[in-house]
Amino acid sequence: MTHPLPPADSGAPQRFPVVVVGAGPAGLTVGTILRAASVDCLVLETETREFIEQRPRAGVIEEWAVRGLEKRGLARNLLDRAELHTACEFRFDGERYRFPYGELTGSHHFVYPQPLLVTDLVREYADARGGAIRFGVRDVRLHDVDSDRPSVSYTCPETGERQVVHCDFVAGCDGARGVSRASLPPERVRIARHDYGIGWLALLAEAPPSTDCVLFGCHESGFAGQMPRGPEVTRYYLQCPPGDDVENWPHERVWSELRERLGAAGVPPLTEGRLIEKRVLDMHDYVVEPMAHGRLFLAGDAAHLVAPIAAKGMNLALHDAFLLGDALVARLTTGDGSGLDGYAQACLRRVWDYQEFSQWLSEVYHGTAAGDPFRAGTALARLRRLFTSPTAAAAFAEQYLGTAARY
Questions:
Q1: Burial classification of residue 7, based on how many CB atoms lie within 10 Å of its CB (0-12 exposed, 13-18 middle, 19 or more buried)
Q2: Contact by Cβ (8 Å): 317, 62
Q3: What is the pTM of this model?
Q4: H-run or E-run covering 255
Q5: Which residue of 343, 363, 385, 386 is surrounded by the most CB atoms within 10 Å?
Q6: How confident is the model over 376-406, as pLDDT tens digits?
Q7: How does residue 298 score in pLDDT terms, banded at 50, 70 and 90?
Q8: Tell me, what's the pLDDT at 169?
């Protein structure tokens, strides 16, 4: 039965079995899993609905993650509209090398931009299943999460009044800068961090992709990547100094560098277009351990960040959400707490597997531009091995698709 959300100005006490902080892919998936099992929850989000449905983010979803969404009735639009990718292409030493991972594994990637997935999940959670959600809340705080009576408070955007919500569990899905991770006691937390010492200029171009697959350019001037986002919009990346200013990258310089770094013998010219987004991303990873404290459970970027080097972030968030949503349902409907007890350990196995692959792949992408002949030589050796050794190719394909991490 749906637990109606009291009007913001009612003064009525609020109580939900679960409060989910953050309406990204992880938080909305957890919330929808709970609603499907008739478990009430409240999702709190600091941004507006319009903002989260338009915020540009990742677009590559691994096949196992899509099957997990499909199993829970959350993939109808995705399966109808997503592009299927079965190959990628590396360009290095002035040549192009197509890597047909679909032929090697029988698996593929789905390309479905995160804003579309978030839009689907909001509609399913709030509109179709009647889940309670508040957008635009301010000053979210977590209280007594190490007790059996935690609560979450926030400032109501309509009235400016402070609201308190009592609950049994808190799902912290509010990202790297959210309140959930900050609510863990510092003396009980270890944050393992790795900084790559490089930046990526992230670009969105109003232009169709120049090929039918993802491109990786490993060039002495720096890495470049092309990631299709649909028939008329393409994501590009250019390696740059960390903390670089986007003003250093006018239109002509961007396309000149992309042409150089993605160039190869016999390839058609890039399809150029207006740049509608430019951001500099400093490449770093972190992992928070433990991912749980008392009645607070972290998921997604609140618990771990993997640089976009291997396109793993949204997939890890969904993996967390599947495990956490199912574990909360089991605990609240049958009293079985084993899923919650093993949640962090089960998540971290995949997290560390993906972090290791991201670190390995970074050296492939960036080693040729390191200014170190030894690193450049070993990076090229790794690249050549992918196209000369079936064993190396199979291992890379498994990690690239996430099929090696069977947990």
A1: exposed
A2: no
A3: 0.92
A4: helix 251-261
A5: 343
A6: 999 999 999 999 999 999 999 999 999 855 5
A7: very high
A8: 98
Q: Distance (Å, rounded) from C-alpha 218 to C-alpha 215? A: 10
CA distance 291 to 343: 8
Taking the C-alpha atoms of 12, 16, 20 and 24 in order, what is their torsion angle to the nearest 10 degrees? -80
Dump the DSSP string for 263-283.
--TTPPPP---EEEEEEEEEE
Residues with Cβ within 8 Å of 397's Cβ and at least 6 positions away in sequence, in order, are 99, 101, 104, 105, 403
Torsion of CA 214, 84, 283, 293, to 10 degrees: -170
- What pLDDT, on a 0 to 100 scale, did the predictor assign at position 404? 59
Query: In angstroms, rounded to a whole number, what is the distance separating the alpha carbons of residues 293 and 30?
Result: 18
Helix, coil or strand: residue 189: coil
Contact 259, 270 (CB under 8 A): yes
> What does the pLDDT average to over 41-68?
92
Lookup: tokens for 114? 């995160």
Q: How far apart are the first and last CA of the chain?
A: 33
Omega before 308 within 30 of 0, i.e. cis: no
Q: Sheet of 60-62: strands edge to edge?
A: 60-62, 109-111, 83-85
The pair of three-digit structure tokens given for residue 93, joined into one six-digit string: 């030493």
What Rg value do the Cα atoms of the chain yield, rounded? 22
List, for residues 176-205, the tens digit of each pLDDT value.
Answer: 899 999 999 988 899 999 999 999 999 999
User: Phi first, then psi: what are they for 59, rounded to 5°?
Assistant: -140, -5
In angstroms, the Cα distances linking 266 to 94, 207, 269, 332 are: 10, 21, 9, 60
Q: Which uninterrupted H or E stretch holds 76?
A: helix 76-81
Closest CA to 300 of 287, 281, 311: 287
Q: Please say whether the beta carbons of 172 and 301 come within 8 A.
A: no
- Strands, DSSP E only, in 30-129? 41-44, 60-62, 83-85, 88-92, 95-99, 109-111
Stated as kind and residue range, the H or E segment containing 288 is strand 274-289
DSSP SS3 for 203: strand
At 117, the amino acid letter reads: L
d(CA 311, CA 354): 10
* CA distances to 83, 104, 215, 380, 385 from 107, in Å: 14, 8, 19, 26, 21
